[in-house]
Amino acid sequence: MWRYLLVVAVSNCTMYNWTCSPGQEPSRCRGSSAQHPTAGAASARMKMVSVLPVTLWLCVVTLGSGSERCDDWGVDTMKQIQIYDGEPAKIKCPLFETFLKYNYSTAHSAGLTLIWYRIGQDRDLEEPINFRLPDNHISKEKDTLWFWPALLNDTGNYTCMLRNTTYCSKVAFPLEVVAKDPHSCVSHSIKPAEQMFYLEEADEKIICPDIDGFYPASVTPTVKWYFNCNLVHNFNERYPRGPKFVIGIVRSIYEGNYTCIVTFKDHGRTYNLTRTIKMKVVGSPKKALPPQFSSPNEKVVYELEAGEDLVLPCEVFFTFLKDSRTEVWWTIDGKSTDDIMDPKIKVTQSEITRAFEDKTIIRTLTVAKATPEDLKRNYTCYARNARGEDHSQAVVHMKVVAPKYTVELACGLGATILLVVVLIVIYHAYWLEMVLFYRAHFGTDETILDGKEYDVYVSYARNAEEEEFVLLTLRGVLENEFGYKLCIFDRDSLPGGIVTDETLSFIQKSRRLLVVLSPNYVLQGTQALLELKAGLENMASKGNIKVILVQYKAIKKSKVKELKQAKAALTVIKWKGEKSKFPNSSFWKQLQVEMPVKKKSRSLSLDGLIHMPEKCLTPKQNKPPKSTS
Asked: Which N-terminal residues, if any, form the signal peptide (predicted)?
């Protein structure tokens, strides 16, 4: 083994520390490199000189023009390659596929040399690939890099550089060597190539891809097919035929990953090639249709008020058509929205993929705060594919808004509430007058054909004060003013009669029993209590008499059972002295309400009644006393 130091000390040259074997070409020597700090535009040429007893390689530098350039295309991530560990692989330099307009043969004829470099995994230094090592499993052939086989530590970035003395172009690409998943025929980290098949097509074939060139044409490899990593054996309508897999009729249930494993021998060693195709079933072009509109349509009316946002979705269904453009667009009054520069008009689009690669496109037109003029425009959605073009118009109406009578309703409601309150106040203040008015005009006369002789029987304590109240005030007003016929026992009874019998008889002949309550009524009212008891019993048993309680003077507590019951069950009309003497006082109105309805035949003024001569209102003084037995 010989060791030489080759130094290029000019611009754009690299200092190499080579270790070469005797007779080995310098380009095949192993070594490390470092860019010289004076790098510029130049090229280097290796030359062998023989100096006894040592053979030395020198770097003879030929200065080039200062205009040499190197087109560095960086790392081509689109060319990311994944291969399986332990399997042969070949990689073409991407320069001739994508970046340059000529092929390798043309470049080689023009004096350009293709050089390969590699940055290993977890390394930073780019090193040239040594193809001359005896145990090297990597080789090159023209613009192709071969791995026999690829190993996990081959993962890294690979660079192919095409250059001569005046020109340089290079590109890098990542290579990943992966192992298969445990208990699986593939690795799920490698995405398989996808191949489309038309639904219900007959005798379709899946070809095991990228296996040419690995073995001579004279070699017949063994091919096994797997469906989702299940060995294909006696599958219905599907059967392998060497590197081809025949599908009798394409059905949707046949979608999945089809893997072919090709086994062959080379130089006494067995190799496997694993390839996977993902079968995708798509709609047949025989059944492809023009665009199908779901919305807008004539059945859907977009009705809204001015000032609201107008949102119009255009939903179109497209059947699958290979290499066919699918377009959806809106027009407003015949003008495409793409040509309308109005910030309040916005268009968005979304896409939903259906079975068999059919799809639905939803293109939504939004007009923010639509004016009445906007709601009168023509909004039409268009759609187009290779089968044809169609359109559908959106039906937009401006909503007729009913007048908002907010103020009127508020005023009406307020007036109604005020009226109700006023009526309630009037009712509470004048309910007696209202009842009396109704009785006077619409009430039925209770005195007709009822067999009663008196309107009211007056029961009171027999003393001078209460007799004066009864005979002067009550009798004078009720008889002379209101026209009622009163029965006053001391006035209307005949001499010599039995008090008890006559009392009961008078009560039965009366329509009302008016009881004048006072402390004396309890203390001095033996006959009065008899009258009260008889009236209450008659009212309870027959119901043909009604008891009226007039409180002439307040009674603190009463031990009389009948009086307690009467006060608890009946309304008490209170005499308030001077206030009650006036004709418009509530006392007389309440009393009149309790009296029977009777049409007046005549009317006297209350003022005249009060000023009547005293002799007309005084009780009889000379009547003989009645027998109580």
From this structure: none
Same domain, 386 and 413: no
| Residue 186 lies inside a defined structural domain of this protein | no
Q: How far is CA 260 from CA 39, 227, 438, in A?
A: 51, 9, 110
Gap between the Cα atoms of 367 and 308, Å rounded? 9
pLDDT of 66 reads 43
305 among known catalytic residues: no
Q: Answer yes or no: do 240 and 332 share one domain.
A: no
Q: Which of 194, 531, 562, 578 is catalytic?
A: 531
Residue among 618, 519, 504 at smallest CA distance from 559? 519
Assigned token pair, 121: 């995994």
Q: What is the pLDDT of residues 492-502, one digit of tens each?
A: 888 877 888 88
Same domain, 589 and 486: yes
Q: 339 lies in a domain?
A: yes
For residue 81 the two structure tokens come to: 């390659």
Decide the pairing of beta strands 244-249 and 202-207: antiparallel
Q: How many CA atoms lie within 13 A of 96 on its CB side?
A: 18
Q: Which two tokens stand for residue 392?
A: 């559908």
Query: Same structural domain for residues 375 and 493?
Result: no
- Quote the CA–CA distance of 479 and 38 in Å, as a whole number: 146
- The domain tally of the chain equals 6
Model pTM above 0.70: no
Domain ranges, residue 174: 69-178
- Residue 266 main-chain phi, psi, to 5 deg: -145, 120
List Cβ neighbours of 600 (8 Å cut-off, separation of 6 or more): 482, 483
